[in-house]
Amino acid sequence: MENQKITLKKHTAPGWKYYPYAAANLLRKGHCAPTVMQTILDISSTEKEWLVKLSAGMPGGIGNTGFECGAVTSPLVLLGTQFGLRQVDRGLPVIFDKGHALCQNFLACHHTLQCREIRGNDHFPRHCIPPVLRSPGLFMDALDGNKQDPISAARREAYIRLYSYLSENNFHCAQAVLTHLGYNPEDNQELLDAVSAFMGGTLFMGRTCSAFTAGVMAIGLRIGEIENSPLRVIRLLAIMTVGGYAFDEKINKFNRSMNWGYKLSKWFVKEFGSTQCQEITRCDFSDPKGVSNYIEGGCITRCKQIAEKVAAKVQTMISTQEISKLKSEGRLS
Questions:
Q1: What is the pTM of this model?
Q2: pLDDT in tens, 223-247
Q3: What's the sign of the alpha-carbon dihedral 198, 99, 76, 3?
Q4: Which DSSP symbol is given to 17?
C-alpha cells in the first residue's frame, strides 16, 4: 500500500441521503463492516481496497465474536485515517473525541454497540440493516465534529494519564501487533493511523482487546478477499433465512477472514481467558483508580506480551494459509 494520508471529503447531506449507497453495497458485500467501509469510501470518492480487506474479519462483532458491531469499527478505522494520533486536543489525540462522539451517536440510535444485542436471535439479520444504513451518516457527523465534549472531564483526566503513560512506554495495543508483523512506520504509516482508535479495548472503553482486534484486521489484510456479487449475497441471505450455515468460504468471500478471526478468538480466549480488555486487565480506564491500578500493577508488561503473542499466532496462521494455497494450486509439493 502506498504510504500517503487518506483525505475523505466532508459532506453536509442528512444521514438518510447515504442510505441508497449503503443499501447497494450491502447487496454486493453481504456483511456489515465491509459494506460500511466501502460506502464511506464511495461517498468520499476514495479508492482504498486495502481498507475493505482490513474490515473483512470484523463482521459479526470482531472476528464473529458478537462484540463491537462492524458498523462501529469500520467508521473508527476511517476516523483513524483522518486524525491518527498526531492531532491532539486538551491532552488527548483528537481521535478520542471523534471516536467517542461516533459511539455515543450510535448508542443513541441502537442502544448498544454489541453485534449480538443488535442482531438478536433471528436467522435473517434484519436488525443489522438499520445500523449499516445509518453508519455513514454518523461517521460524517463525527468527522464534522458536531458533538461537543463527548468525554466527561473526570474520564478525560483518567484517559490523559493512561495515554501519557502508554506513550512514554512507546506502546499502542493495535499498532504493536502490526509492527511485530513487519508493518513499520516508515512504509505503513497510513495503516498504523487506521488502527489509532484501537487501544485499551477501543478508545480506552475496556471492550474487545485491541491487540486481538489488530490480529483480526491483519488476517483480513493478508488473506482477505472482497465480495462483489449480488447473486452470491442473495444466496447468503437465503441460507440465513432458513437457518442454514451461511459462513462457508464458498458462499461469501469475506467468510474466510471472519472464520479465521473466529479461530483467532478461540485461541485468544484459551490463552488469556477473555477477548475483553477490562476482564483481562481488571482495570476500568474511565476511573482514575483503575488507571492507577493498571500503571502501578505493571499491567503494560502483560499487554506487550499479548501483542507479541497475537502477532506470532497471526503470522503462523497466515503462513499456514499461504502454504495450503500454494499446494492447492500445485505450486508446492
A1: 0.93
A2: 999 999 999 999 999 999 999 999 9
A3: negative
A4: G
